[in-house]
């Protein structure tokens, strides 16, 4: 099966969506499924508001149609609700083609924090966007319950995984810093709530890995913390494995993929009791959730690193890929090369007709 995934988020961006899709592609290939991506590259773009360095693709309907036809996919998945996602949705709806979507980013909360737009308005837009999908994939049981209560339908689980060979205790390096070492990884932006971590009175050293619009301001306010910027995967794994506690201060992430990466390195989690940490940690002795984040950080120091690693080993990316492929089977456009070729001829005629 060939799957076309439409996404507004792609390299060189470094975030959970991009890391998830990259890992999905690799794992799906091992299961006999080929994944192609319809990405922003090649489309005109504008700077993304409030996100210095990022650009927002501005695809045309014809440009989207040409790429979909050229892909010759058996199934279509829309990974993001940006301009590319909306254009691909429009294409599919207008032609009666089934597709799936996924919810990965809490845009209503982010938009509300920046522009003071009521979250109820944004969720109404999202309900309409995802309402046309055969399946809308969510990453945790908490999200499924929340979205069911918000009136979303046709929900399906698509959990996340971790590369336990890349992320492991053996990767640890000597950071030559006062211990304990508390580390946080992610985009340095307002919605990640890093200030809640950086202002804590903790012993040892605080490390922040990542970049984003709030980086410069937070470095000036918290000069005692070590800001390391972006690191490649191997260096990221080495620093995670060298830490004593992974601190996840976000209250808005839908999952927080880096939580699994830290656990695979044998590093326990300290977090607020919110969606994401609540689903990952649950009742397992791998992290501490508390509204008092300092108390969570100190308590996490006493947890077993071996238990963290063991938990992560039960969450391979192959398991995640199988869930995704199961949902894609429900929207296959045809089960043979002949039927797919017929579909593509019809779509090509539609493109040429405008």
Q: Structurally, how many domains make up the residues?
A: 2
Basic shape: globular
Widest β-sheet, arrangement of strands: 2-1-5-6-7-8
Contiguous uncertain segments of 5+ residues: 335-343
Named CATH architecture of the largest domain: 3-Layer(aba) Sandwich
Count of individual beta strands: 14
Question: What's the rounded overall pLDDT mean?
Answer: 91
Relative strand content: 5-15%
Helix and strand content put the structural class at: alpha/beta
| Rg, nearest Å | 21 Å
Give a description of the structure.
The chain has 354 residues and is an alpha/beta fold. It has helices at residues 16-30, 61-71, 83-95, 107-115, 119-131, 141-149, 194-198, 215-221, 233-242, 257-264, 277-281, 293-300, 305-313, 317-328, 337-352; strands at residues 2-6, 34-38, 45-47, 55-57, 75-78, 100-102, 135-138, 155-157, 181-185, 205-209, 226-227, 245-248, 269-271, 287-289. The protein has 2 domains: 2-161 and 317-352, Rossmann fold, CATH 3.40.50; 169-313, Glycogen Phosphorylase B (Rossmann fold, 3-Layer(aba) Sandwich), CATH 3.40.50.2000. It is built from 15 helices and 14 strands. The strands form 3 sheets. Strands 2-1-5-6-7-8 form a 6-stranded parallel sheet, with helices on both faces. The protein has a 6-stranded parallel sheet with strand order 11-10-9-12-13-14, sandwiched between helices. Strands 3-4 form a two-stranded antiparallel sheet. The longest helix has 16 residues, at 337-352. Mean pLDDT is 91; it is low at 335-343.
């Amino acid at each position: 099966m060939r799957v076309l995934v439409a996404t507004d988020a792609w390299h060189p961006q470094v975030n959970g969506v991009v890391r998830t899709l990259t890992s999905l592609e690799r794992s799906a290939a091992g299961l006999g499924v080929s994944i192609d991506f319809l990405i922003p590259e090649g489309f005109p773009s504008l700077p993304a508001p409030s996100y210095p360095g990022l650009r927002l693709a501005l695809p045309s309907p014809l440009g989207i149609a040409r790429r979909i036809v050229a892909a010759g996919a058996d199934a279509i998945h829309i990974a993001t609700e940006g301009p590319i996602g909306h254009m691909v949705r429009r294409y599919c709806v207008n032609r009666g083609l089934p597709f799936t979507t996924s919810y990965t980013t809490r845009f209503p909360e982010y938009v509300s924090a920046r522009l003071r737009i009521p979250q109820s308005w944004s969720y109404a837009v999202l309900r309409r966007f995802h309402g046309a999908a055969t399946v809308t994939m969510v990453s945790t049981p908490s999200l499924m319950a929340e979205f069911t209560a918000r009136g979303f339908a046709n929900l399906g689980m698509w959990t996340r995984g971790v590369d336990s060979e890349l992320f492991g205790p053996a990767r640890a390096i000597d950071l030559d810093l006062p211990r304990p070492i508390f580390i946080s990884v992610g985009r340095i932006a307002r919605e990640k709530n890093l200030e809640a971590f950086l202002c804590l009175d903790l012993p040892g050293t605080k490390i922040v890995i990542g970049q984003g619009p709030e980086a410069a301001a937070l470095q000036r306010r918290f000069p005692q913390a070590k800001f390391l910027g972006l690191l490649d995967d191997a260096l990221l794994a080495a620093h995670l494995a060298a830490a004593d506690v992974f601190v996840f201060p976000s209250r808005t992430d839908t999952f927080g993929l880096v939580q699994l990466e830290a656990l695979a390195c044998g590093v326990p989690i300290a977090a607020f009791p919110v969606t994401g940490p609540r689903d990952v940690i649950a009742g397992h002795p791998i992290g501490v959730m508390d509204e008092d984040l300092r108390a969570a950080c100190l308590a996490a120091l006493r947890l077993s690193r071996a238990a963290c690693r063991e938990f992560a080993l039960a969450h391979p990316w192959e398991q995640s890929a199988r869930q995704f492929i199961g949902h894609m089977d429900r929207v296959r456009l045809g089960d043979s090369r002949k039927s797919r070729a017929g579909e593509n001829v019809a779509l090509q005629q539609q493109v040429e007709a405008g």
